[in-house]
Structures are given as C-alpha cells and as structure tokens.
Amino acid sequence: MYDVHEIRKDFPILSRQVNGKPLVYLDNGASAQKPQVVIDAVTRAYAEEYSNVHRGLHYLSNLATEKYEGVRGTIARFLGVADEEQIILNSGTTEGINMVAYGWAMPRMEAGDEIVLSVMEHHANIVPWHFLRERQGVQLKWVDVDSRGALDPQAVIDAIGPKTKLVAITHLSNVLGTVVDVKSIIDGAHAKGVPVLVDGSQAAVHMPLDLDALNPDFYAITGHKLYGPSGSGAIFVHRDRLAEMQPFMGGGDMIREVHKDQVIYNDAPMKFEAGTPGIVQTIGLGVALDYMMGLGMENIAAHEAVLRDYTRKRLDGLNWLSVQGTTDDKAAIFSFTMNGAAHAHDISTILDKKGVAVRAGQHCVGPLMDHMGVAATCRASFGLYNTEDEVDVLIDALELAHDLFG
C-alpha cells in the first residue's frame, strides 16, 4: 500500500509552518525535500564514519570507500543498468553534461558540425553546447514543440543531417512536464549513426527506468531532485562512448601513474572522477535511491499520476489561468500564467503567504520561454509526498491572487 500520509512522516520539513500556514511544498522540480533516513545517513557519515576514499588502508577510509563505491551499484540498479562500471559519479547533471561536452564532443567536432536540441532543454543541456558553438563553430539545430508542448520524435530524427554529431534531448521537461519519447529518438538517431545524450534530471524522479533497454549513449541524473543531497549525481556512459571519451578533469584518483614526462590514466569509470569527490553527498544519494526503490517507482508514478489528473481538473476550472504544457503524456508539473497584469513573481509571493512554495521565473529554459512568448511563469511541481489536499490549498491561494490582481 502506498500511504502518502505515512510517507510524509519520513520528511521532517513537511511538518513545519511557513508564514503561519502549513508548508505546501510544490517546488520539487527545482529540488526535493529529504527523508529522515537520508538526513541520518549524512549526519552519521560526518559524525562517525568520515574519511577520504580510495586513499587509505585504515578502518575509516575502508568503510567510507565501501559505502561510497556501493552507491555506484545502487545507481545502476535504479537506472536499470547491468554494468555498473558505466556509471560515473559526479556532482549532478550539469557536471555530467559538461563532461560529455569537453571529454567526448569537443575532441571530435569541428566547424560546421551540428548538435540537435529541442527548444525545451534546460540551460544545463544548452550552455555547454554553446561553448562548442563559440569556440569551435559547431552549429545548434533546434526542434520546436507544438502548441500543447508535445515533441514529435520524428521531427528530431528528421533534423539529423550528415553533419550531425550528437542529439541532446530531455526525457521530461522541467517546465511543461512533457514526457519525451526518447526511445524512438534514440533508435532513429542510432539508425543514422548519431549518438544521443539524454537529460534525465526530471524523468528519473517520476518514472521507472531501464537504460539497458532504452540504450542511450549518455544519461545524466542529479541527486538533489531525487530526494538526496545537493552536490550528488551521476551520468551513465555507454561502454562504446567510454572508450572514446577523454578525461574531463585531471587530478588524483583518475590516474595510475604520474611521471615528469608521462601520465597513465586509470580505467573507467575512475578515469573520469578526479579529486576528492562528494563522499558524504554520494552516500546520501544512495540512501535516497534505496528509499525510492523501497516505495517502488511504479507506485510513485501511479501516485503522481493521480495528483497530475486532479491538479489538471482543478486548474481547468480557473478560466483566468493559462497553463503551458497540456499534452496528455506529462508528469505532475504545471507551469502557468495569470491573465492580466500579474507577474509570476507577484503570484508566487501571494502563494507563499499561504504557505505554498512554487517556482517563479524562467526556470532555466530561455529558448522555451521565447518560443512560448512569455516572460516568466509560475511552476507547481509535485513529488512523492504531495497530496490532493495540497492541490486544494494551491487553488485557494491562486484564487486569492486573482482577487488581488484580477
């Protein structure tokens, strides 16, 4: 049984008040709250078990190394990956995509080569490719979404030309909630000999994954959205791409030997994990993923689907609200603007007075905002602990904002 009210007890912050009102946390798309088991694991790692990893032969170093390295296998199970050596541990999606940009794409792209993107990519999956545009003359090709926020996979495949070297695509839009058919895109791109990078920051939170079946070349996730600590994450890199990728950063741990005139690199994935890592953050991420798998990703997805449908129904009753992203296949993420002069920041401020935490602004998707013709939106993004009662509180707060600004 998925008992959301019992689950909420695992998250201490959900019992607090904000502005004298019970906290309704609907900013999960930006960063999710942490269960007590993660908080305890982080505290214990610092208070009782801390040491550097891979470096020492003493008890604490061995313990920290065992726990840290164990997370690689946990992430592999969570993502549906049989070979855990395809998992590179890092600080999150941003580092992962930059690793691919510098270590894989930059050495093999030249002026006139192309990268295909969708217009709804997060800046983390845009700016690294702009670096290649600025520095090496790489061209960015953009694929639009339709009026409902849906992305046609065939349009992405058709955008691939003889100069295309990479497709970089989100699995789930952080603003529209759109679930992208990345399997069709991957299969179509591979048929043309083009690798695919998938930004899985949002998708990994909301749905079960089987990367061995999906078969991407790169798939990035970030820990703080997965109910784990900030500064944690990973990127899956297919064995074929690992063999092609150069180290992103140099330092300790990613080498076997260093001499005055020679460096011998470590094997993958260690080859791409330079320096002292986020030891405690990564340990906390492993506990967070175990927590999610304990609840069952199918159960989480089913619960959030109920929230999505209920929220859609309630928002549809507000004829003075415009929702961006209305495709049927979407997650429980709702971005909206209020008809009239009210700015998203003003709306979010009123909601905050009622204890409702939402995001306001451009959500790191400048090209999508330009495409939609809006300056900013409010975004309510739901997680595994949210309830229908909280949706009702959101609606009441929106009606108050409309009364004030309408």
TrEMBL record:
This is Cysteine desulfurase. It is an enzyme of class 2 (transferase). Catalyzes the removal of elemental sulfur atoms from cysteine to produce alanine. Seems to participate in the biosynthesis of the nitrogenase metalloclusters by providing the inorganic sulfur required for the Fe-S core formation. Its cofactor is pyridoxal 5'-phosphate. The keyword Transferase applies. Its EC number is 2.8.1.7. Residues 24-394 form the Aminotransferase class V domain.
